[in-house]
Design goal:
The longest helix has 26 residues. The chain is an alpha/beta fold. The strands form four sheets. Strands 2-10-9-8-5-3-4 form a seven-stranded mixed sheet, sandwiched between helices.
């Protein structure tokens, strides 16, 4: 039996330890010199706005509810099931049977870099169609990772004929040709028919950006022989920003998985991502990164809505609303930037800045008085156009009428002076 004196000392120590821990904790806290910021002690507030710009668009309640479901682990079997659903939804949206189909953890820009980083090796030739900001971006990305970049160039709103494309393919012999299907900076939807055949004729892969056009304008990956296609979640798909569907053809996979060098990005390395998405034929998926679980929930729901609606119905609806909107703009005396109706992007309309008006003042007025987002140009189209997007959940004639009323109000009340 322990002596009474020892028990007394143990009891005393037991009383002192919490006190010393508390004092130690207090001494540690005394080193804090940055107080809690006042803004973090207030509840989060966000205004309601009509997001009628080029994206993101307003998210429907059903998709918001899906994104708000309880989190599960990114490596849980149930999560893998949801990812499998997403893959099938993308295959439908893209109209492809490609096994190598997945969603990137990031915006459409992430998918853009994934495509270039995985397909192209330093020193290889890349051909880029530049008629707006997205061609400019791809050219810079390819140049940064050591490719030899050649470009076909047109002013915003311009498009390339198949003859011009073939001439450049023959001259530069690139491993990859990039084309933007929906050029949101100018409001152009670019013809794709025949381009895949030309690329295959010259042993080149075709990479297409459909961030602004998927679900709003016809695009058929397999039939049009597109080798790599990507889009974003936040436009006609109506999910929050942060996920980006992408698909690779067998030809693209052969080039991608027979590289001499590793891709410059570990995060975007398709060797690892193909396993994470269950596309490599291996029995087990291995941790690569923590995917955006809530974002995948929302993306899955947005693809479900597209499947329920039907692709052709979605294309038809976007075109009908766009035509209604275009007529209304012309009735207001405004000029559409893309003259040829067949080349206008149904999801993002571009208006030539009305003569004598300051476009920034007009956009500020519309935001202040109508809680409505329109935007100016982007990249090379800055100062040339105003952009109005009616896509997905926002694509209806009632919203088009509200947008027309806001423009009419701004034309009456903004000062008519040169910008």
């Amino acid at each position: 039996m322990m002596p009474r004196s020892v028990l007394s000392r143990c009891a005393l120590l037991a009383q002192q330890v919490p006190l010393e821990c508390a004092l130690s904790s207090t001494r540690g806290m005394s080193s804090i010199t940055i107080p809690p910021p006042a803004c973090m002690l207030r509840p989060l507030e966000t205004p309601f706005r009509y997001l009628f710009g080029p994206g993101p668009s307003n998210v429907p309640p059903r998709i918001l509810a899906a994104g708000g479901r309880p989190i599960i682990g990114h490596m849980h079997s149930e999560m893998f099931g949801i990812m499998d659903d997403i893959k099938k939804g993308i295959q439908y949206a893209f109209q492809t049977n490609n096994n190598m189909t997945l969603a990137m953890s990031g915006s459409g820009h992430t998918a853009m870099e994934c495509a270039v980083f995985n397909i192209v090796e330093p020193g290889e030739n890349v051909l880029v169609a530049v008629n707006g900001i997205w061609g400019e971006r791809v050219a810079e990305i390819a140049e940064r990772m050591g490719a030899k970049v050649h470009s076909l160039n047109k002013a915003p709103g311009g498009h390339f004929t198949n003859a011009e494309i073939e001439q450049a393919l023959s001259k530069h012999k690139p491993v990859l040709f990039f084309l933007t299907h929906g050029e949101s900076s100018s409001g152009l939807v670019h013809p794709v028919d025949g381009v895949g055949d030309l690329c295959h004729k010259y042993n080149c892969l075709l990479l297409v950006d459909s961030v602004a056009s998927l679900g709003a304008a016809p695009l058929l990956m397999d039939q049009q022989k597109i080798d790599i296609l990507y889009t974003g979640s936040q436009k006609a798909l109506n999910a929050p920003p942060g996920t980006a569907p992408i698909s690779f053809s067998e030809r693209a996979c052969h080039k991608m998985f027979n590289r001499k060098t590793k891709p410059v990005s570990y995060l975007l390395d398709m060797t690892h991502l193909s396993n994470y998405w269950g596309n490599d034929g291996k029995p087990n998926r291995i941790y690569h990164h923590t995917g955006p679980v809530s974002g995948f929930f929302a993306l899955r729901e947005s693809l479900a809505i597209l499947a329920e609606t039907g692709l052709e119905n979605s294309w038809r609806h976007h075109k009908e609303v766009a035509q209604y909107f275009w007529k209304g703009l012309e009735d207001l005396g405004l000029k559409l930037f893309i003259k040829d109706e067949d080349l206008r992007l149904p999801s993002v309309t571009t208006i030539a800045i009305p003569e004598g008006y300051n476009w920034k003042e007009m956009l500020t007025y519309i935001m202040k008085h109508h809680q409505m987002e329109f935007t100016g140009g982007l990249g090379p189209s800055v100062g040339m156009v105003m952009r109005i997007g009616l896509m997905g959940y926002n694509c209806n004639k009632a919203n088009a009428a509200m947008a027309l009323a806001a423009l009419e109000d701004a034309l009456k009340n903004c000062r008519k002076t040169k910008s």
